[in-house]
Each structure stands twice: as C-alpha cells, then as structure tokens.
Amino acid sequence: MNACLRDLAREDDDYNERTRTWMKQVREVAFDSEDCIDTFWCHIGCQYDKKVLGWFLRTVHPLKILKVRHSLAIEIQSLKTRAQKVSERKTTLAVTVYHSPLVQRIQCRAFIAASQNYDLRALLKSVLKQLLQKPYRGPTNVQEGATEDPLRDIETWDIPELIGQCRSYLVDKRSNLEEVAGNYFDEFISRSIITPTSIDSSGKVRSCRVHDIMLEVITLKSVQENFISLVGNHQHDTIGHDKIRRLSIQGVHAGGNKELFPDRNLSHVRSLNILGCMEKPINIKISHLRLIRVLDLEGCHWLSNQDLKGICKLFLLRYLSLRSTNISELPKLVGNLKELTALDVRNTYVREFPPAITQLRSLKHLLAGCYKYYTRTHRVKRPSGKVAVMVPVGLKNMSALQRIAHINISSSFRALHELGELTRLTKLCVTNRREIEKWTPFGASLSKLSNSLRHLSVGHMEKQDHGLEFLIDLSHPPLFLEKLYFWGRVSALPQWISSLSNLVDLSLRENHLQGELLKILGRLPSLLSLKLYVGSYAGTELCFEKNLFPRLKQLMVDNLANLDDLSFQGGAPDLERLTLAFFRVPVKGISGIENLPKLKEVEFFSSIVDSVVEGVIAAARVHPNRPRVYRDDLPMEAF
C-alpha cells in the first residue's frame, strides 16, 4: 500500500475526486495496519527486573494479554476486509483506464492480473533482471533473427554465488534514512522551495525559512492529506480530523484554549511537536500516546522531571528532544525505550546519565551540554565545560552510537576504555577540568576510533595544565577528520594535523602555540574555516602569504594578546567573512584587505577598538567588492 501511494505521489497530482478518495482510503488502511502491529508490540514490550516480583510478572504477563490478542485478531480480520474492498475498487479503476481510448492508441500494451497465488518462478525472474542490471545482448552462436530466453537455464545456475552477488549489490546501493533525507533537503534548496538563513563554516545549512506563499501551499496540502494537524494556529486549525497522526501544538496556553481539546482521542498520534507553549497544554497526557515515535518538547519550560516518568512507557519512541527545558535528571527506567535512536538533552540541567541508558542499543545520537554564543551570527561560540554530562559504565553496549556530545571524561577509567569500542562513532565531543590522568585512557580509545571519526572536540578547562599533550603521541590519530576543536594547553601543534586532507573546520583555544602556525595550517587543502580563539596563538604576527589557505572562506581572530600585525599578502584568496576582536590596537594594524577579492563582510565583536574599526571601514570603501563592516554591539542597520 505504501509503495502504491509513493508511485502515485510521483505522478501529476491533478487527480479526479474518485482517485483522491481511493488514495485516502488506502492511506488510512496502511496507517491502521501499522497501528495494529504497533499496539501489539506495546503490550509485549514490557520490561521486568530479575527479582521475584519480576519473575511473577513475567509469568502472568501472557495471561494478561490474552484479551489483547483476541481483540487484535478481530481488528486484523477487519483490516483484511477493508483492504480487499479497497483493492477491488482499484482493480475496477485499472480496467476502466486500460480500455479507455487513450490507452488503445498505445501499440505495446498488456494487462496482467496478479492473483494471490502468483507464479513464484516468474516473479523471481523479474527480480533477478532488476537486481543484476545486465541487459541481455543475445547469443552469438544462434542464427540471425532468433531469440533466446536469458533465464532459460536458471536451474543450472550457481544459486549460492548468485545470492552473494545480489547481497553485495544491495549493500552497495543501500543508504540510511539520514542520507536520503539530506538528499531531499538539498533538492528543496536547489529548487528554491526553502531558503537557507544560516550556513556554518563547512557549508552545511543550519537553519532555513520558507517563503510565505510556499508555506501557505505546504500547510494547505499537508492539512488536506491529513499529514499534520495544527492546534493554536487559528488560520489552519485542523483538530477536526477523525484520526490525528501528527500533531503540532503552537502557542497554546493553559486555560485560554480549553475548547480545542474536548474529548479528543490522541491514541493514534505518531508525532507530537509543541512550540511556544509556556504552560502545559490541556488534556495532553504523554504517557497515553502509546504509538508515538517522535516527541519534540524543545523549549517547554513547564516540563518537569515528574512528566518524564510517563515517557518511559512509550516503547515505540524513536526521537526524543528535551532541549532547553528545566529537567535535571532522566528517569531510571529510560532503558525501556528500546527503539530510541536520538536523545537530545542539550541546554538542560542534566549532569549525569543513569546506568539504564546503556540499555538503549538502538541509540545513534546522544546530545548533551550547551554552547555559549557571543555574536548575533553565532560564529563565535564556546562549549560550556560545566554542563558536560557524566556517562556510566556499560557504554560499550550502545554499539549503534554515531554522535556523542558533550560528555565529561571525569567518569570511571572503565567507561573511558569502553568508549573505544564504539566503532561507528563519527562525532565525539569531550571535556575535562582537572584530572589530567584521565586523558591517557581516552587517548587509547581515541586511537581505536581513528577510521570512523569525522568530528572531534576535546577541551581541558584548567588553563595552567598541559592537558592535551597526549594528542602529540597518538598511536593512530584520526586522519579522516572534517571538524576539529582543540581547547587546552599543548607544547606544540601535533604533527598529524598537517595530514588532515579532509579537514574543513579548525578551532583552537587556550593552546598558547608559537612558531610558524599559519604555514602549517595554510597547507591544508580543504580548510574552509579557521577560528583562533583567545590564547590559541602566542606569536606577534599573523601573515597570510601567497599560496596559503587556498580555500579558506571564514577567519576568526579573538583577542590574541600578543598580536601586533595581521596582514594579508596574497593568501586566503577565497576569504568571504572576517570576524575580529582586539584587546588593544595592533602595533602594525590590519593590512592587505584589498588583497581579499571575495571579501563580503567584516564583523567586530567583544572587545572593540574604535580606531581599528574605522581603519577597516576606510579600506572597505575602496575595496572593489565593497564588503560590509559592522559591530556586534550596534544594530546592523547602523552600518
């Protein structure tokens, strides 16, 4: 049924009323079928401990669900009847189309009726032809004009070898859901359906907006298809649908919108998103949403630790966002969420994960901690080491993990060793305050992740300690990194950094590096963004010479105490954005702005020296590209 709906969606959507009604019936049968299966899994998904009470509950559990099994059997029979009626209507429609005058004009046409007792051999032949994708060119030893079935001798084929070829073909062609979604997102941008509003240093879109007219079309289409139900948006209030599948609550306050939820059945909700609700919406009992898969509560300040206990009963939940809420701990039964793939507790008061979190074997994204932003463009930020989260022992059980941010490695040595067994990790962000000895086991685990890591952030908060010395002697450094963030003292820049050919984003802070830093970094072929935060460089000059930084587009220099000279002498020819902060006026100033032909904007933030800003504004006025110069402490309209 889903395949049928996808095929129809690819065609022109100018359907007649009969086809549109039929599509709605097919969609509802498909959804109800999934609900039936999910309901069954919810009842058998209960978890019990190993104590005497747990043994007793496991014993009586099959008896408790006998009634559920009986009711589900009746519902399955009803769904079967509904599906047969819908299919019969479509068969009648297909026969009508086939015999229409338009189809009669087609020379090559055929009408094939496939019953439930289909020909398995013929089906397998069709599948093999599609999988192999090797068009048959015909034999060379037969007389001209003769035809031959390429699958005639199928009985003589080496079936095990063929299965292996098919399997390898399928593995090569498969892609995960995130990649598919990313491709769709890029296509929306290329077609100007959505417009990026924030792009990071690596070119990744962080936020976007939709034109008002396009938003109107998308909303109207989604409402018509019952793809989403909106509450609180009076222009498109759609709470009247019979079965709500995806619900978005926008700006509803307790007491003021009570009439929107009278006796509303939300048992079929699969996705719930609550936006701008300062108080808890009426009649929303999260624990009753047994079929829900996506729960986004970002910014819901009314959410409490007590509310989270009901979430642990949502056995089908896959995505849970508690970002920017006031929760301080996760419930002890969080391990019941076996299907959870993403957990976001960033910018909350959670400082330690419960031991039960290691039972989430399907979890791919574990996000914690928070950033502090210093500019309106969010280009200057600092991870807060005080809010990094402690992880428990048993981390190795979470073998599906791909992203972890931000964790405090002050955990046990055993937990640090287990970190190296997460061989699917692509992003890892860790911090440490004073315990230098903890970096040694972390370095050993980091060497085991050298082939998978693409994003690494390490920070040692104590300014006086050389906490990052372990990076110099890594046995197997992560050479496939695309993003790298170093925060902490180190005697010299690790040599393996010069081999990071895929690195696009590099940030340094409190490293106190000296020597020819720019000559080393300037040879990185893919580097797009370089951020030199406070204390990162102890030298007196930064000179961007010719042939250095061939692809650099963003440069940030943040209050380097000893800096006397910032000059551009032919290097960084693609530089577009320059972000600067100075404690004092550089002795030799900022020179060579005219040598940056693609420069678009210069931003001053934090400590701002008026004379430096005026000098850059004067240089921008005679620049061929007329870059925009502005201060973060004044409205952008002032420049």
UniProtKB/TrEMBL annotation:
Residues 173-218 form the Disease resistance protein winged helix domain. GO terms for biological process: defense response. Keywords: Coiled coil, Leucine-rich repeat, Nucleotide-binding, Plant defense, Repeat. Residues 268-628 form the Disease resistance R13L4/SHOC-2-like LRR domain. GO terms for molecular function: nucleotide binding. Residues 1-48 form the Disease resistance N-terminal domain. Belongs to the disease resistance NB-LRR family. This is Uncharacterized protein. It comes from Dichanthelium oligosanthes.
